[in-house]
Specification:
The chain is of the alpha/beta class. The protein is built from 31 helices and 36 strands. α13 packs across α21, α28 packs antiparallel against α30 and α28 crosses α31. The chain is globular. The N terminus is likely disordered.
């Protein structure tokens, strides 16, 4: 969308292009006119004049369809949307320059005041008293009255735009403001000095000696700070240390400090540790506020409105939202025939997206994606009718026929007469016995071409044979799947032949479906619902975004379904006069932005920042921008961002400076948990996604050779028994540790900790009751719930390909891209991070149980990274012979036709490696 810039003298007017102005988000106009004396005009809901001195932030972001410019001023926030990326960037830059031109004018007019400002700057710099962020300089300058000081302390002042003549006329001390290198040099010297001065302080802090990186993170205090941490690197300890340091330096009062955590347990732990460090007898006496986002939002609303918000009765229950969504779906099914039809088709016909093979890295990855299971070593695609078909499109057809109770046979043999007396047997894709109709689904593009050699002639030969034998025949094509006419064509062809349709009941559908499909859609709806409500998305916006996805038909169907459910959810809140957590945070943001709530916080610390969502980020921004000269210190690990389904947006972390402004970014790269082999292998694994922030992880624990172990499990009735294998492994581990108890047992611990982890709770081998052993204490949890925990050993179940496997094929659903403004493009990005979380819980060793026939691609990657340090073994511990070609298979003995022996990979046909039986492999 082009930005229309109308020039009239020196005045400039900005508005979206013509098409964008047709949408509500495009109905605005901004005018920059130098004659307005430090103001600019904005016409949106109404016409207002905004003061340049009141604007505290200008930022651009990518919304669902367009780019947006956000202007935050004291008491209000304006969002200018419906722009192209270039137009948004240009508008932000021009507004930034317009404001700076006004600021420079104020400085030039009041040069007499600059000597007073010079005195204040010298007071804080010559004494080397504190770290100097731009906000610290601005605070000192703002203590001097007058317009020049107000301009010099303005958060948007950009010295790089200052005219050379004005810059040359400023006192020498102003180089601290106008030349970033001067302030940087001062701060570097200050950090070096402070590390020496506070060495005893950091040697015994939070009951530990801080690493060099932790010490630096405590000392540095820019306006915005992001500490990028590794798993087990002491994130919480650093937050405790930060609070202790700033209070020791008397930089802030305790009541000016706010610490935010994502759940009550984390907030309680931080509060206890800070109280202990500050030697406060009771947590209640702690003047720093340590709380959750939800509690903060609730408190803001209560303080302004005199009573707490009325939360819906389901929000505090872990499964409450899911039950509400299920009830809304059931009511829509019963009361809205159109919704019932769409929901049934979504579940049955579109369980996953039909994505072209070209999108995948290779045929193996594509087969992994499309297959439901492996049978006798071959990837298969099942249908609800029990038929194994050959493609996703054939699955759609078969499932549609099953949904509508249409009797059919798949690839039935049909005899057709050829020239002379010859008989040829064909196997049409679908055969309808009621009318003896043949239906072929051809892999043909719109121009009649095919990606397969000689396929076009093959299709034409079949057509001729059916016509010659006067067989009732119709065809569908891949082109129809692409242009969304496939199912409509199928329905009309069957209707033309008077084949009756009877859609199955919802009870029949849910009984036949794999429960993971329904659970997956419920989770998708829960995530999308949050984004739709927060961003006020309309059906038109969702349908426009659906055009960009691979499976457009599925995307459009889901868009209509999820919007109806969202509307039902919103109605339920309105009818009960209640709000949910997201609404509560949004209401709190509005109270802060409009100035009805006055923030007392000058230093805001945020734990687990990788889990941040847009509403929570907006609350932090609003608090920071309302209180002049306040700062943000965020701590987290983007490698452990695993809550996209709950609304978290990893790009707020990875694009921290773009979201919050100029910042310092530090690292915590020393882990106190995993041994070096696990730490280094896991780090290289997760960084194969180039979008993850780079870190070099080092451990305080030396590498334990071959502490990453893979245990392939044989099938029993087409499904490995992971419960039995896990029990046997635990018994073996308990016995082995008992034999060397003298090496680890001491007065601090009588048993070693073992975490048994699974991707989905359907794999819970203990049903909530872990077994008891003499030497190990066993706990069973999902990957998600294990985050933040640590153990001596971990056992990871079903690290295999599949819907319930790792990576889960159903989690990286492209439907999320309907609502997420900045979707991730790396395949299974969040699944990779989740596996990293599971890998990094253990200090001594990791055991991965995998389906022998379907080992996870992640195991192959670990083998590529760590080589011989990954050991393949049986449950009893006997070493297996690893295939040198595919790395995940095992070499097994086989016999040639002549009776001679050879060894081949058990992953055949995906891996065709063979070698003479006489080859000896050493590990």
């Amino acid at each position: 969308m082009a930005l229309t810039k109308l020039l009239s003298g020196r005045s400039r007017t900005y508005r979206p292009g013509f098409f964008a102005r047709l949408f509500p988000a495009g109905k605005w106009k901004l005018t920059l006119d130098p004659k307005l004396s430090g103001h600019f005009q904005l016409a949106q809901d109404s016409e207002v004049e905004l003061s340049c001195l009141d604007v505290v932030s200008i930022s651009t972001s990518k919304a669902l369809l367009w780019h947006t410019v956000e202007i935050r001023a004291r008491g209000r926030t304006d969002t200018l949307s419906a722009l192209s990326g270039d137009a948004a960037t240009q508008l932000a830059a021009d507004l930034h320059a317009f404001i700076n031109t006004h600021l420079f004018g104020l400085i030039a007019i009041e040069k007499g005041r600059l000597l007073e400002v010079d005195g204040r700057l010298r007071e804080i710099t010559e004494g080397n008293r504190q770290y100097l962020a731009q906000a610290d300089l601005s605070r000192a300058i703002a203590s001097v009255p007058g317009a020049a000081a107000a301009a010099l302390s303005h958060p948007l002042l950009d010295p790089s735009l200052m005219p050379a003549g004005l810059k040359a006329s400023l006192p020498a001390s102003f180089a601290m403001i106008t030349d970033p290198r001067v302030r940087h040099a001062y701060n570097e010297a200050f950090v070096r000095s402070e590390l020496i001065k506070f060495r005893p302080f950091f040697d015994d802090l939070d009951r530990r000696s801080f690493s060099d990186q932790q010490r630096e993170a405590c000392i540095r205090l820019e306006d915005n700070n992001l500490l990028v941490a590794s798993a087990g690197s002491g994130k919480s300890a650093t937050m405790v240390g930060k609070v202790a340091y700033v209070l020791e330096k008397q930089l802030y009062r305790p009541d000016e400090i706010l610490l935010l955590a994502f759940n009550k347990n984390a907030a309680d732990e931080l509060r206890t540790r800070i109280a202990a460090q500050l030697q406060v007898a009771e947590d209640a006496a702690l003047e720093c506020r340590v709380t959750t986002f939800h509690a903060l939002g609730r408190g803001i609303i209560k303080e302004v409105e005199g009573r707490p918000p009325q939360l819906a009765n389901w929000v505090d229950h872990p499964a409450g939202e899911t039950k509400v969504i299920e009830a809304i779906i059931q009511n829509l099914i019963e009361g809205n025939p159109e919704f019932a039809r769409m929901w049934a088709e979504l579940l049955v016909v579109h369980p996953k997206a039909d994505i072209p093979i070209e999108v995948f890295d290779g045929q193996v990855d594509y087969r992994r994606y499309v297959s439901d299971s492996l049978r006798k070593g071959s990837a298969t695609i099942g249908s609800l009718s029990g038929v194994i078909v050959k493609s996703m499109q054939e699955q759609k057809i078969a499932n549609w026929l099953w949904l509508h109770s249409v009797t059919f046979e798949y690839e039935r043999q049909i005899a057709v007469a050829e020239d002379g007396d010859a008989v040829r047997h064909l196997h049409p894709d679908f055969y309808y016995p009621q009318t003896a109709t043949v239906h072929e689904h051809f892999a043909l593009n719109a121009d009649g071409s095919s990606p397969f050699a000689d396929y076009t002639q093959h299709a034409e030969n079949k057509r001729l044979a059916y016509r010659r034998n006067e067989i009732d025949f119709f065809e569908t094509t891949s082109a129809q799947a692409s242009n969304e006419t496939l199912l409509g064509t199928l329905e009309s062809e069957l209707a033309r032949r008077s084949i009756p349709f009877k859609r199955k009941s919802y009870a029949e559908i849910t009984k036949a479906l794999d429960p993971v499909i329904i659970k997956h859609y419920h989770q998708l709806i829960s995530t999308c619902l949050k984004h739709i409500r927060a961003s006020h998305l309309t059906l038109d916006m969702l349908l426009e975004r659906a055009k960009t996805l691979h499976d457009k038909e599925r995307a459009k169907l889901f868009a209509r379904v999820v919007l109806m459910i969202t509307q039902g959810y919103s109605r339920k809140l309105e009818e009960t006069k209640r709000i949910d957590f997201d609404s509560m945070i949004a209401d709190a943001v509005r109270l802060v932005e409009t100035g009805r709530y006055r923030s007392p916080y000058s230093l805001i610390l945020v734990d687990e920042f990788q889990d941040i969502s847009e509403p929570r980020a907006n609350l932090i921004k609003a608090l920071k921008l309302q209180k002049a000269f306040s700062k943000v210190f965020a701590v987290g690990d983007d490698w452990q961002s695993i809550y996209r389904f709950a609304g978290s947006d990893i790009t707020i972390f990875t694009r921290f400076e773009a979201n919050f402004g100029t910042s310092w970014q530090g690292r915590l790269e020393q882990t106190y948990r995993c041994n070096q082999l696990i730490a280094e292998t896991a780090a290289k694994f997760v960084q194969r996604n180039p979008e993850q922030i780079k870190k070099s992880v080092r451990s305080t624990r030396p590498a334990v050779s071959r502490s990453i172990r893979v245990i392939p499990i044989d099938d029993k009735r087409d499904k490995p028994d992971f419960a039995e294998a896990c029990q046997r492994l635990l018994e073996r581990l308990d016995a082995a540790l008992g034999g060397i108890a003298n090496r680890w047992r001491d007065e601090k611990r009588d048993k070693l900790k073992v975490l048994v982890l699974w991707r989905y709770n359907v794999l819970d081998t203990f049903e909530g009751r872990p077994p008891s052993f003499a030497n190990i204490e066993v706990t069973g949890l999902s990957f998600h719930r294990s985050k933040g925990l640590e153990a001596d050993y971990t056992v990871l179940l079903d690290i295999s390909e599949g819907n319930y496997g790792v990576p889960s094929r159903i989690e990286g659903d492209e439907l999320l891209n309907l609502v997420i403004p900045r979707p991730e493009t790396f395949a299974y990005a969040e699944e990779r991070r989740l596996f990293y979380v599971a890998l990094t819980r253990a200090s001594r060793g990791v055991y991965m149980l995998t389906n022998r026939r379907q080992p996870s691609r992640y195991i192959q990657e670990l083998c590529e990274i760590a080589g011989d340090e990954v050991r393949f073994e049986t449950v009893e511990g006997a070493e297996l012979s690893q295939c040198p070609a595919c790395l995940v298979g095992q070499l097994v003995e086989r016999r040639n036709k002549d009776g001679s022996m050879f060894r081949g990979c058990n992953q055949f046909p995906d891996c065709k490696h063979t070698e003479p039986a006489s080859v000896v492999r050493r590990r």
